[in-house]
Amino acid sequence: NAGVTQTPKFQVLKTGQSMTLQCAQDMNHNSMYWYRQDPGMGLRLIYYSASEGTTDKGEVPNGYNVSRLNKREFSLRLESAAPSQTSVYFCASSETFWDNQPQHFGDGTRLSIL
Amino acid sequence: AQSVAQPEDQVNVAEGNPLTVKCTYSVSGNPYLFWYVQYPNRGLQFLLKYITGDNLVKGSYGFEAEFNKSQTSFHLKKPSALVSDSALYFCAVRVKPLYNFNKFYFGSGTKLNVKP
């Protein structure tokens, strides 16, 4: 049972470099999400995709872009990394956007920007 | 504004004792409440949820939570703690959409330490 798979697990970047975080789910879920987790702040929503072909901004979208490549895959791109983007990034999915089913999370990407 | 508060950064309990992890919320409309657990270097795992009905909800690994509308709380409980319960616990609330935007709000997390 793979569930939600994120790659890479760890990454160190220099300020100004770009990078794409990959996420794939094998549960045939319609909705996918990107969060960042910072100490003492819980999870904050960066972007979400309610269904294939749609993406929308969450709480903290500045500095990020996303692509819903197909139903399975949802990538997050940092165009010009900044130290403030040092965080743990989680991808999640759910069956639909409108119901009350829980979200399923990947194991995260730990990103450090120097 | 919608918010979720976990007033304790850390909870310490001895193995075999009951545990409580607190959560309060402030939302407009009917809340849908969730608890998740996070083990080191892992993503969040769903424990239980309250949508409607019985205020006492039972979930995975022997955990339960009580919804209290008057106190706007949804505390997580377990009658007898295990060392393996040591982890980070997150409360989350999902608000019934007013404008078709159904969003999770997460608390800041509570670290549970269960000592042998």
Summary tags:
heterodimer, A: 114 residues, mainly beta, 49% strand, globular, B: 116 residues, 6-stranded mixed beta sheet, 4-stranded antiparallel beta sheet, 12 strands
* Radius of gyration of chain A, taken over Cα atoms and rounded to an integer in Å: 13 Å
Count of DSSP E strands of chain B? Answer: 12
Distance between the termini of chain A: 35 Å
Give the tally of β-strands of chain A.
Answer: 11
Shape of chain A: globular
Beta-strand content estimate of chain A: over 45%
Short account of what is shown:
The complex is a heterodimer of chains A (114) and B (116). With 114 residues, chain A is mainly β.
List the helices and strands and how they pair.
The complex is a heterodimer of chains A (114) and B (116).
Chain A: E1 4-7, E2 10-13, E3 19-25, E4 31-37, E5 43-49, E6 56-57, E7 64-68, E8 74-78, E9 87-94, E10 104-105, E11 109-113
Parallel strand pairs in A: 2-11
Antiparallel strand pairs in A: 1-3, 3-8, 4-5, 4-9, 5-6, 7-8, 9-10, 9-11
Chain B: E1 3-5, E2 10-14, E3 19-21, E4 24-26, E5 31-38, E6 44-50, E7 56-58, E8 64-68, E9 73-78, E10 87-95, E11 104-106, E12 110-115
Parallel strand pairs in B: 2-12
Antiparallel strand pairs in B: 1-4, 3-9, 5-6, 5-10, 7-8, 8-9, 10-11, 10-12
General description of the model:
With 114 residues, chain A is mainly β. Chain A contains no helices and eleven strands. Chain A has strands at residues 4-7, 10-13, 19-25, 31-37, 43-49, 56-57, 64-68, 74-78, 87-94, 104-105, 109-113. In chain A, the strands form two sheets. In chain A, strands 2, 4, 5, 6, 9, 10 and 11 form a seven-stranded mixed β-sheet that branches. In chain A, strands 1-3-8-7 form a four-stranded antiparallel β-sheet, with no helix packed on it. The radius of gyration of chain A is 13 Å and the shape is globular. Chain B has strands spanning 3-5, 10-14, 19-21, 24-26, 31-38, 44-50, 56-58, 64-68, 73-78, 87-95, 104-106, 110-115. In chain B, the strands form three sheets. In chain B, strands 2, 5, 6, 10, 11 and 12 form a six-stranded mixed β-sheet that branches. In chain B, strands 3-9-8-7 form a four-stranded antiparallel β-sheet, with no helix packed on it. In chain B, strands 1-4 form a two-stranded antiparallel sheet. In chain B, β8 and β9 form a beta hairpin. Chain B is globular and about 40 Å long. Chain B starts with a strand and ends with a strand. The model of chain B has no long low-confidence stretch (mean pLDDT 90). Classes of the chains: A mainly beta (114), B mainly beta (116). The A-B interface holds A 4, 40-45, 58, 90, 92, 97-98, 100, 102-108 and B 4, 9, 32, 34, 36, 41-46, 49, 51, 90, 94, 97, 100, 102-104, 106-109.
